[in-house]
Amino acid sequence: MSRKVVRTSKFRHVFGQAVKADQCYDDIRISTMTWDSNFCSVNPKFVSMIVDASGGGAFMVLPLNKTGRIDMSYPTVCGHTGPVLDIEFCPHNDNIIASGSEDCSVMIWEIPDGGLTSPLTEPVVKLEGHSKRVGILSWHPTAHNVLLSAGSDNVVILWNVARGDSVVRIDSVHPDLIYSACWNRDGSRILTSCKDKKLRVLDPRKGTVLFEKEKPHEGSRPVRAVFVSGGKILSTGFSRMSERQVALWDPNNFEEALTLQELDTSSGVLLPFFDPDTGIVYLCGKGDSSIRYFEVTDEAPYVHYLSMYSSKESQKGMGYMPKRGLEVNKCEIARFYKLHERKCEPIVMTVPRKSDLFQEDLYPDTVGPEPSVEADEWFDGKEAPPILISLKDGFVATTKAKEFKVHKSLLKTKTASAGSQPDSSGEVQSLRKEVQDLKAALEELTKRVKELETKN
How many Cβ atoms sit within 10 Å of the Cβ of residue 276? Predict the structure, then answer.
């Protein structure tokens, strides 16, 4: 009689490795704010992190290949009048980033290809509607130009960014500070955790509570929660004895946790990052020096501990690269951007494989950058699953025309909402130059036609 001692899983031997020193981003003064957000956002073009700034708030956006020591005078995005608390790149356009700040506003910025050459102070769109600081931002996963923001005024707002409008305002649900807010895979539900010790699943358009769980964790410290596969919910929090916990819930049966595990007695809030393609959830504690990772499956005990990446230095924040930005030929299944006090260090998670060929079992079709529905259609009730792409030949960027169209609609909003502001955007400057060149070419051609006419 053979007894299965170890659970078989292709992710049992996943290991994390920090990149070499010359591949890090050095000499960056990371923000010292005590807010529990990621402080870092990353996509296949740029890495962005919140930095210390005197008088107002700023964040830095670097092209991924600009590694090494970053000059003190490197330009930042510095249009907020209070410290920046959260930043997030748009999943459908790698040049667009949103930022929320203590000055109660949300700003949308456009980063030119190749990064900034001068400080960026004018946003493309400024979204005003919160009465206290805005600490949580989350772009809709499938609808174009839909952004969720949550503030210390206990209000969740859904914005139509292209129009600069707040379309849905959920202000009567949360009686206390909102700790986290996120979307499910197709953006048909919002999950929030709140200081009143409740997890809530909301209908985003109606703002109504569909499911509610009281005291997912007994402790009074912040709770974080994300949707995992199959509509289940994974939460991290603290026990009454201040031990850190991770739990898995089924919203249709919220009474009992499917599993609840105690991890350790550290005090940092655990930030969960879930990868729907592999079913792995990574837990990064603020102030920890490690990343734990677990596999979420359909068989008990549902959340299986895999391993832990440890290092000497503690992390002040963490960025998570979308799947399309990974190196598939090296069997890389996740890449984190760990913030230290003075630098940003990429950490690569790899499945050891002998073959250099594309590993189809590690890379199922994943979410691509194309939105599957426009903002107006989504607010009118249209649902759409994400548009998937294959990573077999590596991710290829979308056509320039598509991106230009997006920028244009956002720029239109700027002129509509902000009146006649000075054009500091690099996009406008390049358009001006193009017009000048066309004018010069036209003059040249007119001159030539006249010469030919006089000859004849």
Answer: 16
Largest CA distance in the chain: 102
C-alpha dist (Å) from residue 93 to 98, 398, 406, 456: 11, 9, 8, 53
357-370 pLDDT, tens digit per residue, is: 888 999 999 999 99
pLDDT band at 373 (very low <50, low <70, confident <90, very high): very high
Going by their DSSP bridges, the two strands 68-69 and 25-26 should be labelled as parallel
Distance of CA 50 to the CA centre of its chain: 13
185: which residues sit within 8 A by CB, 6+ positions away?
141, 227, 276, 385, 386
Query: pLDDT tens digits for 124-169?
Result: 999 999 999 999 999 999 999 999 999 999 999 999 998 899 999 9
C-alpha dist (Å) from residue 43 to 94, 358, 407: 7, 22, 17
Rounded to whole angstroms, how far apart are CA atoms 166 and 159? 4
- State the Cα–Cα distance between residues 352 and 372, nearest whole angstrom: 34
Residues facing 125 on adjacent strands: 108
Nearest to 227 by CA among 262, 275, 263: 275
Residue 127, C-beta contacts closer than 8 angstroms, at least 6 positions apart:
105, 106, 107, 108, 147, 149, 157, 159, 161, 164, 166
- Which tokens go with 51? 């930095």
| Cis amide leading into 369 (omega within 30) | no
